[in-house]
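cache lookup: miss for this entity combination. No prior model stored, computing from scratch. Input as submitted by user K.M.:
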Amino acid sequence: MKHVIAYAEHRQGQTRKVTFELASEARRIADALGGKAYVVALGSGAAQLAEQLKSYPVDTIYVDEDRDVDGFLLDPVVDHLEAVAKQVGPSVMLIPNTLSGRDIAGKLLVRLGAGIVADVVDLQVEGDAVVCVSPKLGGAIVTHCALLPADYGIATVRPNAFAAVPGGGGARVERLEKPAGSYAAVIESDVEEGAGELALEEAPVVVAGGRGLGGPEPFDSLLKPLARALGGAVGASRAAADAGWVPYNLQIGQTGKTVTPNLYIAVGISGAIQHKVGMRASGTIVAINKDGAAPIAEFSDLLVVGDAFRIVPELTKMIETAKGHVS
Amino acid sequence: MKIVVTVKLVPDPNAEKKIDPATKRLVRTGVETVLNPYDEYALEAGLQLKERVGGDSRVTIFSMAPDTLKETLRRALAMGADDALVLSDGELAGSDVWATAYAMAKALRTLDFDLLVVGGLTDDSSTGAVPGALAEHLGLPCITNARKIDISDGKLEVERETDAGYQIVRGPLPALITTALTFGEPRYASLKGIMGAKKKTIATIGVTDLSLDLPVGTGGSKTELRSFAPPPARGEGRTIEAADGVAGATAILEFLREKKLV
């Protein structure tokens, strides 16, 4: 492994922050390995994304606005990544640890005969191995796992784990040849739900609600304004998603998303282990709960025991006022 | 239709995982082994399809597991699966994702099936890469995170959840599908199911039954666990009783200012 290839996940050119995080990290690891850093952007909107990536310190940005990437599941992307990897030579692939990133990585590891470490939050080059730091067992332990010396290795990287650091400049944009291939799984339709919301995994602040909110309405009237004031996103516990108060793509926890914002505010969430594993690595955790003995007390930096329906609107007002004075 | 559902056996996810500081190993004492919860949804999908398609449809469970734990699979048989095949061999110990997917794919090749249903993640290690790797090894279309599966004229139509919403995907059979947790709650085993499961077959094969070209286990792995430790401890938290909304909000705002978060 000498070079680093980052896969730029996006939606119609609508970037995800993790792409820039991977581009930045690709540079650092490539330097440590004495190789080059590449980014691959595919599908409609890829050219526009490549323009944005030019302000990141990579050597080459490979682009193909291949329509098949948007029309078929997985294989067009995997074919392209395999071709780039074989053209570039021995390399570490950095792929976002997202739903589609995990599928791509699974297929690619067979194509490349590569080892994989998933949910990586830090990378170090030690001798001729690339060591990945990754939480396991719901964050109960943090492992150091080496991609053993080989031609190829894959790390699926947790969003929000690395800083996106612009710099360098002068990256070349190169158009890729489309590899020949036939694809079996046809995407008939692709529907966005909750469009316009900040992606939960990438939000610097998450305001999450649970059973204590009693219904769907407070997510809109109580949590959304607070999240907006703080520049963050709204999430939920499994209890709230199971009750149908919010869509499942807002669920945080073992069976939902893992988030690591700078600030996590848990409103009316008791803090069962199922929820804890999805947010325990957040920077600062504030809980508002009417029960001072709720399990969330054990892993909150601040627990305010009181009535969320009274506290949250006041807090929203105070933060808006504070912001008003600053700007 | 022949359906195979893969099942992993994991420590009870509701038990908090703890590492014994002396041995640096996972504390398993008093922790029950259960079916990976994600795989129960895969099994539910397999059983629903079996019922819908009818005829001589069958659901076979496949698991790579230590022989000593295989009786745990009775629960899957009690839910309605017809039989089970376990790949069990000391040589498999220490297999990473690469070696696991390779060995599983070789074993799955010994089974004849139209549909392979896999859980989306495993509760204990959560790489999520095994389904894609299996599909690639077996040359199957890979349709993940399904919340609705329809089969007609030997073709699949799947509604799958994405990070942004959902997609409708069509594909041929045979195929590999993974299930989302919105697929529907896994059924409980009935008393009749539990009694019937006692007579069902759990067959075991080992690596010598597979035509392996590559090593498996620790020696066949492409990754190596170097060390592990508990995560950095959080500092002691504070608890404040808020008499009213303003008092609670003021306490939070002061705290956020102190942490330079506003």
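stored under new cache key. The radius of gyration of chain B is 22 Å.
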